[in-house]
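WARN retry 2 of 3 for item q-0093 after timeout on previous attempt; input resubmitted unchanged.
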Amino acid sequence: MTVVPSVGPAAVGVSEVLERCRELVQPALVEAVGRLHPWVGEMAGYAFGWCEVGGAPVIAPGGKGLRQALAVLGAEAAGADGREGVAAAVAVELVHTFSLLHDDIMDGDETRRGRPAVWKAYGTGPAVLAGDALFALAVETLAATPGGAGALPRLSTALVDLLHGQADDLLFAARPWTGPERVRPEAYRAMAEGKTGALLGCAAALGAVLGGAPPATADALDRAGRHLGIAFQIVDDVLGLWGDPAVTGKPVHADLRERKKTFPVLAALDTAGPAARHLAARLASDDAPAETAALVEAAGGRTAALAEARRHITAAGAALSGAPLRPAAAARLQALPDFLLDRTL
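OK item q-0093 returned
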């Protein structure tokens, strides 16, 4: 068993690691999208932030590249060159973007990263088509990679779990805030593991598989990614209530307006006390989301959410520490969770 040294995000240089992985994956991702029908490829490029409607190129800041980094580092943690994980990174990034296109349609979200969502820019039907094309391209990309055909079951399992989590998330909207049918925090955890964690775990595991890792090592990376996904989703919920829209790219309190069952709210409702009771009454007919967010914080929702995120980050670290990984890559993987949690500080 490899003992992973305790290394802080600054020491490992997480920003530099993410940038290195993006630079490694980006050409292959662009090449893959270039194989699509030109119109569908334009919509995909728009979704990735590479172009405007009509195809005019834009220079846009890249995203965090978390899934890409997990795939590349998964290969490196298995002892392979990071380039062995590029096909896994491309496949998972395509699946992620496919899920976002369909997610925006299902949720009725009109904007994504500060501009019209694909379905608002091109129409619902074309956006569905573009999403389907990205998924098909992900499967083709992985299948065409040496050793990739044997990794397809992992991608398939992750997709099934993602869809399960998305279904739960949609069904949560119809459930009451209080009473025996309310959504409990444990149900949220299961939803977040599927909706967000499954693909993060898949990224790391696929990279390891293509890097020649045995199944047990890939399984450990999958578990770590799933815990990281739960933490990531909870942190996203916190940012949705108290984050800066200029940083998050979405309006503050949007989740409250859409009646989404986010972890801070669910945790606040699970506490005893006048703030929780007042919060439950306000959620029944809310027209002042800023005041509702203040009640969530007063009832302990923000504190509980960050504590829960930290618990899952610790669990992710434990999964990594228990696997036979190359120390340098393992240290970089260990540094990612704290770096992402810092978004809320």
